[in-house]
Amino acid sequence: MIDDIVAKLKESKLLGRSGSGFPTGLKWEMVRNEKAAKKYIVCNAASGEPKVMKDEYLLENHPEEIIEGIKIALKTIDNSAAYIYLRKDFYVKFKDSLTKLTNGLNITLIKKPGGYLAGEETCVCEAIEGKHPEPRIKPPFPTQAGLWGCPTLINNVETFYWVSQIAKGQYRNTRFYTIAGKAKKSGVFELPADWPIEKVLKETGNWPEFDFFVQVGGGASGEILLPEDLQKSAGGPGAVIIYENKKSQCSKLMKEWGQFFLEQNCDKCTPCREGIFRINEMLKGGKIDKKTLNDIVNNLKEASFCGLGKIAGIPFSGLANKVCKSLLTEKK
Amino acid sequence: MNGIDIPSLCYHSDLKTKASCRLCLVSIKGQKGLQTACSTFVTPEMDILTESPEINQTRKTNLELIFAHYKKSLGSWDLNPELLRLAKKYQIDAQRFSDRKKHFPKYQFGPAISFDTSKCIDCRNCVEVCHQQAVDFFEVKEKENFFQVTPSQDKKVDCIYCGQCVVHCPVAALSAKADFDQVEKALKQKGNKVIFQFAPSIRTSIGEEFNLPYGEVVTEKIVGAIKALGAYKVFDTSVGADFTSTEEAKELIEKIEANQGACLSSCCSAWVKYVEFFYPEFVHCLATTRSPQAILGGLIKTYFAKKDKVNPKKIVVVSIMPCTAKKYEINRKELQINGMKPVDYVLTTREFAYLLRKRSIDLRCVKPMKADDPLGLPTGGGVIYGASGGVAESALRSAYLMMTKNNLPKIEFTEVRGMRGVKKTVINMGGRQIKMAVINGIGNAKAILEEMKKDPKAYDAVEVMACPGGCVGGGGQPVPTDGEIRSKRAAGLYEIDAKKEERIAHLNPVVKEVYRDYLTDEKIIKKICHTVYQAKKRENNFKNL
User: Fold this and answer.
1) What is the ipTM metric for this complex?
2) Where are the domains of chain B?
3) With an 8 Å Cβ cutoff, is A11 touching chain B?
């Protein structure tokens, strides 16, 4: 059974559930095919984006399945050892339950600060190696040279959960959505991965009766969508956060994101270090110059070092352009 | 390169690629988004676009973001002009963003280096190069939601003033502590006799500050330019080096004959501080011979003053050095002679170039002049001091002759030349096998010292220059400084040596004359040519960290 797990993963078309959406089967195959005396497996349980609850939900309710997924990886990838990279609060909460399950296995729990950077695989490698977490230049990718230069498979908690289900033939192309914000029934829901967001909200009894917009993906870098945009399926780590469409909301929300990125980014590259600061500066001043915001967001997207920086500007321009145009000023 | 201008600030070929300034973005056909040229390996089939409206827009925005805290540098003496050039090229709006760093602190490291953190563009070249130097005086700390470069607080770490952070800083946030104001004052002061000396390596590096090719020999232009500044005399530090070689050769022979263990070179002030601070157990191995600028300065204020009938108290000695650590060296109390500092001020190559520009003196147009008598004519041995291995080679030429009383079988000890960080060789000197290690880039010295801790007999002689390539790569040298440039500067020095009639330090007629007339007994030799060292505690303590 285990022998053809890579084939099964490929057949299942499972995509990484951290939000990056990289094909899991391909990633496993890459690490398996590398020739190395030592390889590593990392289960990323450091949940970088705020308001994404599914990782915690799975650690709480399905630790056996997660560990099973890691065990399959240990068997599939030769000479390997595994880490579960937990953000501090998760470590405290789940240490005992996880330790019971990992006893006697080559799996080590690691307590590290979570945060936005934990969403970048090479930052995870740096953090586990005990360094200041900054992204590395790719290539080499972690599948080629990750932890201590060894081929490393890094998957999200949910991805490992689904691996164990795929091994048992129990995967039906579902995913775990987080519904948060001004929702009637917030929480984590397992539903088909290809459902439109509208359907997800309606089926869970969360379609708001008030004028609203949502942030989809993560609670910081997620995309801003209006009710009429909700025919597509949810990307990223699958959170749908509902906000009442009130003007007062905009500035407060942007300030929250701004502060989050300011605190959480690594300050390595110019676009993210300086650009995020300038967005905050404009927010503090209460005026957002349209061209400046546009240039900064575009610069983040085009020029940031890592994937996290590239998407950090999206919610700001989304909210400003879709919901509260009045915040934008234009130089004459 | 190839006439294609791809802008970059954080890239330096001495260091790891960091790809953090994000200016070198290019677009590669078939690849999504933009890629940084510094971190992308080129393959033959790549179709690369280096300029486009999209590329230029990201470069422009990034430059505007960085320029916010660079613009205050514009009036400053030390200005690496690359960012300014780019700002003009990409027609940035220099006022678009306010300076978010204006309240950031300034630090001074000893009397040698200034660090204005408000100019820092966070490339962290300094952190890496200081780590390469095995010093680790910088760290990255989180303050006000930003990870920033700050000096270390660790009591076990201290700056050795090598200045490698200065030559690797793309925006001169780190620069030499400026002393040209005092020099200008001294030049204006009536009754002063301002005497300049210039280090060996300057003659093949300062041309770069005036758009001359890398490594071009401009010795006589330097003399002419200093004279144009109004100096009383111009002497050559390479003559000082000839004295250093003479004394060091004697020390080496003494140590070998008495079987006293390794003799460590001591010309490099950063290396001396490194030993005193990090490896005090080796202080007793350092050659007591003073550095060339210290010996020459001492001779100027004693021998020359007497000969010239000048009151030594009226003499102000200014050294032009490739080095920031030399600013530290001249403040060592143990170097004072009759209560006087042998050297009063040190200007780095860059400070000197600034001073010339300020006075509208273009080195290219200066009338070449010879350095003054009697301390102006060095041997080839004194000139190659500016390159790694030069001190060893010059001392070897003299020691070999002194020890064997034979003619040298060959004058060139090529095995100690070159840019390799560690050069090991065994020299047969009159039947004795002399084990040598020649090191440049002080990070390479650590392993040798550790080896010597285990085996004190591992080496007979060790030359260490803190900077990569030796003084040609010094912390006070023009920017850019990289491997290729260091090689060209060194090649210029060896070219001078090859053409010199006299290439052996102690045979310099001036050296012979001074020993005959002035350095006549051990006491005076010790006073002028030797010094002492001691274990040191951390000297740099900052309140505002």
Assistant:
1) 0.93
2) 106-180, 181-529
3) no
